[in-house]
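User: Predict structure, ligand magnesium ion.
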Amino acid sequence: MTFGGNLRCSTIVTGKAGGEGLVKSAVVAVVGRPSAGKSTLVNALCGEKVSIVSPVPQTTRNRVRGILNAEDAQLVFIDTPGFHLSEKKINTYMTGLVSSALEEVDIILYVVDGNRVAGEEEKAIAAAVRRAGKPVVLCLNKKDGAGESWPGIKEAAGASLPGAPLFEISALTGDGLDALREKLLELSPSGEQMYPPDYYTDQTTEFRISEIVREKVMLGTREEVPHAVYVRIEDLEMRDEGATLWARGVICVERESQKGIVVGRGGDKIRGIVRESEEELSQIFPWVVKLDMRVKVDKEWRKRDPLLKKLIT
Ligand SMILES: Nc1nc2c(ncn2[C@@H]2O[C@H](COP(=O)(O)OP(=O)(O)OP(=O)(O)O)[C@@H](O)[C@H]2O)c(=O)[nH]1
Ligand SMILES: [Mg+2]
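Assistant: Predicted complex:
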C-alpha cells in the first residue's frame, strides 16, 4: 500500500519543458554549529514544519529537504546536522553528511548563533564552507535575543567569510527573512523545477512520523536520554476507509534506566509522547494518525555501523 498525499515524492519530476519555462531554481545547504537555529530557519523559509526542533544540540541527524515554492522560483533547502567536532562514530556519520551536502549544492546558507562566541568548531565549519567554493550567504541568527556580544560575533563571522553577504535575522520571529529570501533568489541559477509546486518536502511518511516522535521524546526528557534515542516505524496501516493511519513502531534507547525514563511512572511519559505526536501528525497529514509505540533497549546502537548507515542519511 502507498501512503501518498503531497508530502511524499519519491521521484524527481521535471519542470516546465523548454527554455522559456525555466524558473529560478537552486539547492541550498543550510549548515552551522549545533543549535544555531538551522531547522527553525528552514521551517520558517518553507512556511511549514519540515524539520524537528529542540533546545538539545544535535537534534537533526539527517539531511532533511524543505522546498520553498514561489512564483517562477523553487528553492530546495537541505537542513543538515549541526557540525560538531567529536570522534564519536555517530558524529563522524553526521559531519560526513554535512561535507557531502556542501559538495552537492548550488548555494551554502551558513547559520551562526549571534549570541554564542565562536570557538574551534565555528572555525572548522567556516573553513569547510570556504573550501567548498560555492556562493555563501551568512546568517547571524537569534537577533531577537541579541546581547552585548552580538557586534563582536558579527565581525568575526564576516571576517571568516570575506565578501559573503551577511543577514541579521531571527528565524524564530521571521525578522530579516524577506531580504534573505530575495538574496537567495538573486543568487539562484535558472533551471528546471525539481519538485511539483505543491510539495514542501520529499520525506517519506515513516520518516516524518519517526522524527516527530523523536522530537517529543527529546523535548520531554533530559540529560543523556535525548541523544540515546532513535525511533523506528515498522508498519503502517490505513483503517476506517482511509480516514485513519495506524503506525506501529519502537522507541529505542541504550539502557534499562533510560527505558524507565521514557516509559515514566505507570506509563505516563510514553502516553504523553504518543498523545502529543498523534496530535501534531494528525495536523500534518490528511488522516487521523494513531500510534502504537513500544520502548525497547538497543545497547550501544550508536557504535554499530550497519544501523548508523541506515539511520544517518
Ligand atoms: N531566541 C531564538 N531562538 C531560536 C532562534 N532560532 C532557533 N532558536 C532556538 O534554538 C534552539 C535550536 O534550534 P534548532 O532549529 O533546532 O537548531 P539547529 O541548528 O537545527 O540544531 P541541530 O539540529 O541540533 O544542529 C531551539 O530551542 C530554537 O527554538 C531565534 O531566531 N531566536
Ligand atoms: Mg536541526
